[in-house]
Design goal:
The protein has 10 helices and 9 strands. It is α+β, with helices and mostly antiparallel strands and 317 residues long. Helix 1 crosses helix 8, helix 3 crosses helix 7 and helix 4 runs antiparallel to helix 6. The longest helix has 22 residues. The model has no long low-confidence stretch (mean pLDDT 90).
Length: 317
């Protein structure tokens, strides 16, 4: 899936942002961006060989979980009651800590911490129950897979720590598009597991969603990913000031990996993505395994809170 390129010059939220930009202002921002793109290229360089050679051949058709993952880029799963209860119990202190820290929407556990914790012990049971490690290894075409990090995330309307409570464009009359927050993850772009730690029954609860099939090649090169990742870091928010910063860059450097918020409603690509978007509610799948190269979004909470545990699986080079 080649990601769409936004025409920022003719975009209503960006069109006037380049008015009056001086050569000095442009040079200053291009210089700042230059250091970010250099860092992104260096970060992604170790993945170049595996990115080009990774097995992406279609897996035999059938009704197996691996075939579903290969076809759609995502697999919905239901936790057995006892495992779900154990997982919620060990995650409860992490989520409570987030509720008590209004300025912090997520926390993370690194590999060594995971391995020696109660969270790691229960997570190992979950992974073993569904046979995830051999499935992920087969999917990636890589014999060794690790869990480098686990994130606990909380979106809570009480503290407006949620996408649903914040306009994409905080100024001006620029309505949020239906594709807002559509994005892909930057390399190593392996697989992730989202586990709901709260009930997610409606759109207002902020469910995870995935655009089916967008994980498949043809895909972006690592250079294109580096450009988009650096641009997102350079102008993360879409404030008036950051829109101006973006317009200081040459056109080829304006694209981001979080492109969905800039797509216009009448864009044919936007309509295609929305038609293929699948929303996952907790009554149907309380955890999802997905290829993070595919287009996805979540946590657009408009009521209460949504708590999740996010597990990253990474093929070892």
């Amino acid at each position: 899936m080649l990601l769409p390129c936004i025409d920022f010059v003719n975009h209503p939220a960006y069109a006037a942002a380049s008015d009056g930009i001086s050569d000095e202002e442009r040079a200053r921002n291009v210089g700042e961006y230059g250091s970010l793109i250099a860092a992104a290229r260096k970060k992604f360089a170790p993945y170049q060989e595996v990115w080009q050679s990774r097995t992406r051949n279609p897996i035999d058709e059938g009704a197996s979980p691996l075939s579903t993952l290969a076809r759609d880029g995502i697999l919905g799963l239901m936790l057995p009651g006892p495992l779900k209860g154990q997982l919620h119990d060990v995650a409860a202190p992490q989520i409570q800590a987030l509720r008590e820290q209004e300025d912090k929407a997520q926390t993370r556990m690194e590999f060594n911490e995971i391995a020696s914790s109660d969270v790691g012990a229960v997570l190992k049971r979950v992974i073993g129950h569904f046979g995830l490690m051999p499935m992920i290894s087969a999917y990636l075409g890589m014999p060794k897979v690790a869990v480098p990090v686990v994130h606990f995330k909380l979106a809570d309307t009480q503290f407006a720590r949620t996408r649903g409570m914040v306009d994409v464009f905080p100024d001006g009359d620029f309505p949020d598009p239906s594709t807002r927050y559509f994005h892909v993850d930057a390399p190593p772009c392996d697989l992730k597991l989202i586990i709901y730690l709260s009930e997610v029954h409606e759109l207002s609860d902020g469910p995870f969603s995935y655009v089916i099939g967008t994980h498949a090649s043809p895909y972006l090169t690592l250079e294109e990913f580096a450009v988009r990742a650096a641009t997102q870091e350079f102008a993360r928010s879409r404030s008036a000031g950051n829109r101006r910063k973006l317009m200081c860059l040459p056109e080829i450097y304006r694209q981001r990996i979080d492109f969905g918020s800039d797509l216009l409603e009448d864009n044919p690509v936007a309509r295609q993505l929305l038609a293929k978007e699948r929303v996952f509610y907790s009554q149907d799948a309380d955890m999802v395994l997905f290829d993070s190269k595919g287009i996805h979004r979540g946590a657009m909470v408009n009521r209460g809170s949504r708590a999740v545990m996010q597990v990253t699986f990474q093929g070892l080079l």
